Amino acid sequence: MYSHSYLFGGNAPFIEELYEQYLADPNAVPAEWRNYFDKLAQAPGAAERDVPHLPIQESFVQLAKKPAAGQRVSPVAEWESMQKQVGVLKLIAAYRGLGSRQANLDPLLRMDQKTLGELDPASHGLTDADMAVQFNVGSLVGPQKLPLSEILSRLKQTYCGNIGLEYMHVSNSDEQKWLQQRFEGDLSTPRYDAATKKRILKQITAAETLERYLHTKYVGQKRFSLEGGESTIAALDHLIQNGTAHGVKELIIGMAHRGRLNVLVNTLGKLPRDLFAEFEGKPTMELASGDVKYHMGFSSDIPTQHGPMHVSLAFNPSHLEIVNPVVEGSVRARQERRGDTERTQVVPVLIHGDSAFSGLGVNQGTFNLSQTRGYGTGGTLHIVINNQVGFTTSDTRDMRSTLYCTDVAKMIEAPIFHVNGDDPEAVCYVMQAALDYRMAFKKDVVIDLVCYRKLGHNEGDDPFLTQPMMYKKIAKHAGVRAMYAERLVTEGVLAADEAEGLIRAYRDALDKGEHVEQTVLSNYRREHALDWSQYAGTHWAHPTDTTLQLADIQRLTEKTTSVPEGFKLHPTVDKVLKARRAMAEGEQNVDWGMAETLAYASLVSSGYSVRISGEDSGRGTFSHRHSVLHDQNRERWDQGVFVPLANIADNQGRFEVIDSILNEEAVLAYEYGYACSAPDQLVIWEAQFGDFANGAQVAIDQFISSGETKWGRLSGLSLILPHGYDGQGPEHSSARLERWLQLCAEHNIQIIMPSEAAQMFHVLRRQMLRPYRKPLIIFMSKRLLRYKDSMSPIDSLTTGGFRPVIGDTTVADPKKVRRVVLCAGQVYYDLFNARKERGLEQEIAIVRIEQLYPFPTEQLAAELARFAGVKDVMWVQEEPRNQGAWYQIRHRLEGLLGNKQSLSFAGRPSSASPAVGYMSKHVAQLKAFLEEAMTLAK
């Protein structure tokens, strides 16, 4: 048996070090200590995982104090006492880690809770006889010593009441201590005054009454009711009213359908009469197509004790969680517009469904963005409206593979607060804790609001079809409003008739179509509000000078090719920068990398900001951009990296290039959201290969191509999609031009397929300099990046502009032309060379259509007019016949032909795959359609 001298408090660090050595290798410590630690691990109820070190160390410090003078302690008694003390600390650790599993979270009390042995004192060697014994509580917040009965009571109240906490997966000790101080200090028990309780009751009364009003007024219409989760409205109100105390100026909310109409009216203050008009098919604003009422967004300014709070609810399609990265991008843009480097003034709030939160991969992508430098927003407040059923899944074993629907959040060590939705005070309490945590640590935090769904997935569904037993319980449930009202009456906070009076007052306001509970500031102008009116009603062909003076080009080249003294460039990069200097002097033609660089440099020097992101955007996937330079002798990012475009002038616009996470869906949606809140910035997303955008198709279909016609949302987002058939196989050839063109209508997006470097320069500048904000999709050839014939003389940047159609200037006499070939992109050079090889320069004219949408009808008509006597017009593409532009623009081409002219096609044969995988077959197909294009009728 050990002498107590080993356990002196001063030896605690030594003992902890021994324990660490034991964990790594039991044979590394002396036998007597190894035996002790072995017995500790084998003690009754010992967890399989390691016992937390800090509580053990603290217990050693407390236990190891010398006995009073003259006092003798039996070694056996001392050993038993120490075992009991360690058992108490293990019990505390067990409640911290597992207490949420025994918490009272389910309002329906449907499932029998499994008893966890780790939460039983007996599992840790503690008996009823120990309940009155005083033990040291270690790091448990409160008095240093308490009877075991009191320790157990505090643990149950903190971790097993209406709030269940998960935070032991958070590795940062400061964050753990903060959470323990907060919840253990309060015993997870809110203590609100009467005024706050009455406000909470008003909020849930508003939530319930609105749903029941709509249910009877618009029978059978979909609204995705919030009934069962009404505490959400109280939580949002609490967040708004208390957020401004932290200096929060804006809350940007993203949510799907469930409860959206309730949030619009009761949180953002949308007029009920406007909502009723939407139910009745009478929209309050005319849009080209519009959208259903539970997809619409809204913004308002709400007064609080500490100043106005601007609250925006993002527009959202039915693809549920896809709005999340859109919100994050919008928040980042707003923060940067405010100069909010601490990311405290604009806060994202995301409201999820339980199945969607765990089921949709975009959440993983969004979480992965949250702590990165180019995408972080300082932490997001997540609220999961957990109705415990998802859509119609009747068993959680079919809904997910994790214990909780919130487990995905553990990937970024976000703390998770589970809370019973029937306790609105607890819901507001965890909302305050979540806000405080977010502001303190700039990290995400999740509230799992466990509730139920009173009706079916929508109001036309019969939930008894799939959840009969659950809905029998729901039918008997009084509802959170009635239960809370009764509680306040019992507490003496409320008179018995006041609760019914709240309902009557709310319904009376609804009958008048007026504002209900939420007060909204009218005619309030925010300092950082955007003015989109300058972009309304403009045309893609708006006259714009995109040229640059030669002196400016040379000045900007000097800035973008200079590096700090002692900065060691890679030989390849050094060669690129020297070549760019030669290009500026007119000694070499301008390549694509130089054209891009000059476009960006000219914009940022004029005060515009540029943001480029993609999976290898700094260098450029094809090693052509080199906007981020790496010192070959220094590894540290803060010392070994130089970005010339960010160092042009003191008062320049911001230049930011980001090597993004390996994800298309979340990143592209994020950049869309950013662009929607930053019309004065050139925002670019670059795909590593064009067809990788397939992974972001939801963002493309639901936001980029249709956001304006559905919601009136303008966006100047630009995409660079590498595209071109070079024999690299199905996944590295096609950016799916046909899909993009199929999405084109009502001048919604711009599709560009440039064939010369100067075109890239002018189109990027045009995107910012015109008062026109529509998404720009650039199909960029990989091959042309280093193809000399596609490079441009320097004077093509100082004169001219972007040319939607490039005519054939090599034809001397248009009357001698026998065929006009129309094409787009890099295939032009294949056609040009094939024509030259056959000596057909004067018999075949090749016209390039560089802008495929909006279709340049007037420009193409003017070029074709030169060849009005040519009967044979052919469209040539390198994509398969059923892909590419052919089927999407054929009708436009035919509409420009004369009566005696005919239109034919040459290209690869129709294919189920975007491209072949065999180089020999690729070459054979290329040869075949070029031969067809060059073969003239005799």
TrEMBL record:
Keyword Oxidoreductase among UniProt keywords: yes
GO cellular component: cytosol; oxoglutarate dehydrogenase complex
Organism superkingdom: Bacteria
Keyword line: Glycolysis, Oxidoreductase, Thiamine pyrophosphate
Domain Transketolase-like pyrimidine-binding: 590-787
E.C. no: 1.2.4.2
TM regions (residue ranges): none
Gene3D superfamilies found in the cross-reference section: 3.40.50.12470, 3.40.50.970, Multifunctional 2-oxoglutarate metabolism enzyme, C-terminal domain, TPP helical domain
Cofactor: thiamine diphosphate
Catalysed reactions, semicolon-separated: N(6)-[(R)-lipoyl]-L-lysyl-[protein] + 2-oxoglutarate + H(+) = N(6)-[(R)-S(8)-succinyldihydrolipoyl]-L-lysyl-[protein] + CO2
GO molecular-function terms, A-Z: oxoglutarate dehydrogenase (succinyl-transferring) activity; thiamine pyrophosphate binding
Summary of the function given for this chain in its UniProt record: E1 component of the 2-oxoglutarate dehydrogenase (OGDH) complex which catalyzes the decarboxylation of 2-oxoglutarate, the first step in the conversion of 2-oxoglutarate to succinyl-CoA and CO(2).
Subunit structure: Homodimer. Part of the 2-oxoglutarate dehydrogenase (OGDH) complex composed of E1 (2-oxoglutarate dehydrogenase), E2 (dihydrolipoamide succinyltransferase) and E3 (dihydrolipoamide dehydrogenase); the complex contains multiple copies of the three enzymatic components (E1, E2 and E3).
Family, per entry: Belongs to the alpha-ketoglutarate dehydrogenase family.
PANTHER family from the UniProt entry: 2-OXOADIPATE DEHYDROGENASE COMPLEX COMPONENT E1, 2-OXOGLUTARATE DEHYDROGENASE
Record NCBIfam families: 2oxo_dh_E1, PRK09404.1, PRK12270.1
Name recorded for this polypeptide: 2-oxoglutarate dehydrogenase E1 component
